[in-house]
Amino acid sequence: MAHRTRRFPFVQVDVFTAEPLAGNPLAVFTDGRGLSGGEMQALAREMNLSETTFVVPRDPEQERERGVRVRIFTVREELPFAGHPTLGTAFVLRGEAGTEEVVLDLEVGQVPVRFDPAEGMAAFGEMTQVEPAFGRVHERAAVAEAAGLPPEALEEDLPVQTVSTGIPFTIVPLRSLETLSALRVDVSRVAAYLSGSGVDAFYFVTRDTRDPAVRLRARMMFYGGEDPATGSAAGCAAAYLVAHGAARPDERVTIEQGREALRPSRIYVRASRSGARVHDVRVGGQVVEVLRGEVRL
């Protein structure tokens, strides 16, 4: 008996960049109905990007009330939230619907993404992430050892702290751009240090950017290699900067990431503050489409 071939179209975009072949690439399957979770995971491995997303359309009334259902996969696991997949998927959906706001229904809940109405090859969108949760403040010496750095490489004016705006990251502030650029991180050693904490990675940042237009340079290494742009971690950094007085409430701060991975990215972040509470964490950037294709199963 002949088997029916199933066809699944996808769009690939570069996120947090206005230039094709830079930023963080993302594959978006625009209709994942008929795919099992296992097949989605296998397709994410096939695409071999840091993340792949699957839009699961449902009836229009549900989408108006709850947003567009989206599932996010790395090559190894499903994620409840991630930054560049949220922005990139919303960009693809915006292109089809012609709207200025797209609400995604993710495992962490509803995440709205608003787009600048100006048209162009690369659109600017900004997502509002979930309320930040501030976790453990770490001992610098222990973190430095896990990262393979001398303790004096870490900045003294800012703490090493775990923050989450959907996914937790431990933010590690470094004194110098030279230290950041020269990082050679043993991911298994970091994982051993973070074991049992619910955190998977360090987000290394430095205020020594050598560029007045950029507030932070950043790097993030994980089991998939080096991430060119980590929107979820950038949201954590936005909350962290405001909480510790390194950025003013609602000030838009530019984070540059990905230069060492040869995929330069710019992430624009801001957060509000009311008394001691930090809230309304917003992460934005540009997105550009690079290719369309179809998978046959």
Name the descriptors:
single chain, 297 residues, alpha+beta, Diaminopimelate Epimerase, Chain A, domain 1, 2 domains, 7 helices
Report what the structure shows:
The chain has 297 residues and is α+β, with helices and mostly antiparallel strands. The chain has two domains: 7-127 and 287-296, Roll (Diaminopimelate Epimerase, Chain A, domain 1); 133-285, Roll (Diaminopimelate Epimerase, Chain A, domain 1), CATH 3.10.310. It is built from seven helices and 17 strands. The protein has an eight-stranded mixed barrel, surrounded by four helices. A hairpin with a 2-residue loop joins strand 16 and strand 17. Helix 4 (140-147) runs antiparallel to helix 6. It starts with 6 loop residues before the first strand and ends with a strand.
